[in-house]
Task: inverse folding
């Protein structure tokens, strides 16, 4: 496009298009991609590449200008840091408990139960589930904080049974897992409702005629047919849950002690409270690597259709 | 159909509705405190019912410092992010949707790959970079990063919406010598207003609730959006005014509710966001 073309009569233009089919034309075609590329490079890829470098330095926000290269020290420190290993374990518990088991199963269950129900039932249930999803993270945190607190609504209900306790102290992980199931189930529910709507009903009716029980129909017909949706959903919710911060931070702050300090919270503490940016970045890289791995698996699974 | 199966059908229907009712109540309960506490004077954390209701909590938080400025900041930050994201995503979606090429496809893969990366982890290096180039505590800087982080998903949705506009409509324009910009501006965009609205609202709502990014990047209270000030409001004082916190939460959540209902109207009743996601 930058070539200086001499003015010419429009009749000559048509044959002139042919030579432009090459690089120039391709550049013109993809020009609208430039803003997106710039934004992603400067504010996304750039910091991440830079973090690869930072993770090998002792950069700290304490004002000292001497940043020296410390090699793999940050990573050796990571694998010998019991707090980090503990946080990784809690992250695993959080992801498996709230996403893989909680949101995934509950989302599928709700989608299955809502199939063929009345309009009213569908809109009430999906409305409530989506409301929990739509509420901002901090507000969701407050709702659950108040719900589970020693004098909160849940204990008000359980008090009659003698089960009243401060759930945020006795079982902080269970508390944040439940809150995250509440908050994130909508996504799985929507994915599964869409997938189930594409399962041909006559297939299921035929199986019912042949005497297949509801469980058999689910196990041998419905689940295999929505297999792809299940795998996609598992990958996506794992990615969404892996780096969850706000909900846990508002509810427990990682406590009591470090009882609910997942890796993102530990990373936050090290980077922004103790100003160990180099160390924090090493942790960020570990999280990014895990995220990248799941993202790559997800891409292999969905395969772009336009080939 | 025999009587037996009919009876069994009936029982399973009852069980189904029972389970659905339990699920609905379970999802409703955590909201209970929020609503009750907001209308009761001197509310504590408990949801005990005293039958006195007042709007005092709402009146107390309706001040410039508590709610108006943070909400205005939220509108500015989320609105700016949504606008920038939609603009850049539309431009990026056009070649991705219209031309088949290896380059376009690899870009699409990169975009999809980036949607999966944990933003929380990206924040540490972004903070380090921003503190070096003096973009900490800058609203435009925050908007830029938020747009970059919401761009991959927005571009992906946008491409899927644009795929729905038949290319044959444009071919006539192309033979008349229209460039890509005219074709996009005159033909494609007017036909995908619902898609644009969905991407805008989706980005806006997501960033309206975003806590971590502004929490890290914006330091002065007069620049922080409601998602952050609501947290400081909650943790700052020893004696938290829970009634006011609940009122604040409701006012802060209200725009999201409005936008979600708008979204479901745009999408024609059924909330089919996943239709755009599925690809």
Result:
């Amino acid at each position: 496009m930058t070539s200086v073309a001499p003015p010419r009569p429009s009749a000559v233009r048509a044959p002139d298009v042919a030579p432009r089919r090459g690089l120039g034309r391709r550049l013109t075609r993809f020009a609208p991609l430039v803003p997106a590329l710039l934004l992603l490079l400067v504010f996304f890829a750039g910091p991440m590449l830079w973090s690869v470098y930072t993770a090998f330095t002792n950069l700290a926000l304490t004002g000292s200008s001497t940043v020296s290269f410390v090699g793999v020290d940050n990573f050796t420190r990571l694998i010998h840091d019991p707090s980090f290993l503990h946080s990784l374990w809690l992250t695993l518990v959080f992801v498996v408990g709230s996403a893989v088991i909680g949101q995934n199963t509950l989302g599928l269950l709700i989608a299955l139960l809502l199939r063929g129900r009345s309009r009213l039932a569908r809109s009430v249930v999906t409305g409530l589930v989506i409301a929990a999803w739509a509420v901002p993270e901090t507000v969701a945190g407050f709702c659950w904080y108040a719900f589970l607190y020693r004098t909160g609504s849940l204990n008000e209900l359980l008090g009659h049974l003698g089960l009243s306790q401060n759930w945020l102290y006795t079982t902080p992980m269970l508390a944040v897992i439940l809150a995250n199931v509440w908050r994130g189930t909508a996504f799985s529910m929507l994915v599964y409702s869409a997938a189930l709507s594409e399962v041909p009903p006559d297939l299921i009716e035929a199986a019912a005629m042949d005497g297949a029980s509801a469980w058999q129909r689910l196990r041998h017909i419905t689940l295999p047919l929505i297999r792809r949706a299940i795998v996609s959903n598992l990958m996506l919710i794992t990615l969404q849950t892996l780096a969850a911060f706000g909900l846990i931070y508002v509810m427990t702050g990682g406590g009591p002690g470090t009882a609910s300090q997942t890796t993102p919270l530990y990373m936050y503490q090290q980077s922004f409270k103790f100003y160990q940016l180099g160390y924090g970045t090493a942790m960020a890289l570990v999280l990014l690597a895990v995220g990248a791995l799941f993202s790559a698996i997800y891409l292999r699974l969905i395969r772009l259709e336009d080939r | 159909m025999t009587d037996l199966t009919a009876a069994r059908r009936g029982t399973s229907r009852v069980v189904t509705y029972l389970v659905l009712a339990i699920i609905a109540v379970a999802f409703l309960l955590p909201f209970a405190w929020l609503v009750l506490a907001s209308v009761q004077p001197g509310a504590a954390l408990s949801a005990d019912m005293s039958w006195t209701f007042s709007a005092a909590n709402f009146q107390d938080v309706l001040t410039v410092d508590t709610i108006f400025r943070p909400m205005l900041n939220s509108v500015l930050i989320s609105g700016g992010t949504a606008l920038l994201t939609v603009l850049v995503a539309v431009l990026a979606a056009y070649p991705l949707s219209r031309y088949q090429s290896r380059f376009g496809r690899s870009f699409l893969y990169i975009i999809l790959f980036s949607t999966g990366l944990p933003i929380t982890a990206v924040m540490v290096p972004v903070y380090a970079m921003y503190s070096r180039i003096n973009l900490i505590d800058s609203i435009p800087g925050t908007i830029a990063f938020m747009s970059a982080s919401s761009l991959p998903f927005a571009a992906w949705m946008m491409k899927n919406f644009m795929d729905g506009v038949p290319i044959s409509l444009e071919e006539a324009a192309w033979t008349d010598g229209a460039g890509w910009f005219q074709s996009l501006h005159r033909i494609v965009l007017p036909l995908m207003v619902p898609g644009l609205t969905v991407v805008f609202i989706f980005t806006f709502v997501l960033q309206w609730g975003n806590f971590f990014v502004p929490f890290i990047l914006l330091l002065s209270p007069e620049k922080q959006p409601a998602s952050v000030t609501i947290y400081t409001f909650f943790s700052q004082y020893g004696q938290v005014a829970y009634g006011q916190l609940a009122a604040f939460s409701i006012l802060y959540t209200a725009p999201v509710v409005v936008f979600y209902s708008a979204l479901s109207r745009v999408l024609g009743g059924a909330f089919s966001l996943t239709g755009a996601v599925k690809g």
Q: What stands out?
A: Chain A touches chain B through 98 residues (CB under 8 Å). The radius of gyration of chain A is 26 Å.
